[in-house]
Amino acid sequence: WEQRMELVAMTAPRHAPRPLDVWSLLPQTNCKKCGEATCMAFAGSLLLQERQLEECLPLQADKAFTERRATLEAMLR
């Protein structure tokens, strides 16, 4: 309560990510290792909270996707 004057109001609108937003950051290999038929289906499942980001094995294993993984983690919070 003592720090209430330091709070800053969030005025910028924030929209929910769309499946295409998530898909564009996935490896797009359609490897089916996550249990879904395509990466687009996995993206939809992520947004519905039916799947976890850790289930995408190529995204976890390949160091080239480190930045994309961090972006997805922030997006899906």
How is this structure best described in words?
With 77 residues, this protein is mainly α. Helix content is 38%, strand content 0%. The chain has four helices and no strands. The longest helix is centred in the last third of the chain and has 10 residues. The chain is elongated. The model has no long low-confidence stretch (mean pLDDT 93).
Counted beta strands = 0
Order of helices and strands: HHHH
Distance between the termini: 26 Å
Question: What percent of residues adopt helix (DSSP H or I)?
Answer: 25-40%
Please sum up the structure shown.
The protein has 77 residues and is mainly α. It is 38% helix and 0% strand.
Chain-wise SSE layout:
Elements: H1 19-23, H2 39-47, H3 57-61, H4 66-75
Main features:
single chain; 77 residues; 38% helix; elongated; mainly alpha
